Request: fold
Amino acid sequence: MASGTAAATVATTGLMAGVGVGGAAMMDMGMLGSAFSAYSSIQQGNAQSDMFNYQAEVTQQQNDLATYDRLQKADRLMSSQTAQFGAMGTEFAGGSAQDVVARTASDAQFDIFNDTFTSTTNQGALRTSAKSARQTGRTNAAASLLDFGTKAGSILA
Reply:
């Protein structure tokens, strides 16, 4: 067992020949620091990605609520218009009364379409940002590991 440990020590010191004990310790600390930095970069990218995805879901929920509100308001307005025309004795079938209510419905549908389009566009941008944040975290992690490799190479050279 002792000879195996000695062989491992010789192999390790053979790699670090010319670096010295302090250099080997610095290499180990640098490797740990780079690994931690890489892990942190990935975690940060994942956290940002999760936040962007959450914001996209909230945007969808807000759009759903706004759509429901617009439909309710349009329904109340059209009911009120129909009741007012009826109270005035205006014939509803065909003519300007029906045109007014139809225009109200059309305006409500346009507003809902506009809100949905804006919401969908915002959700797409947020989901793209989520993917970008995750990729940035991975890229930064790789850069951290490559930076360690470059420094280690210059120490060993």
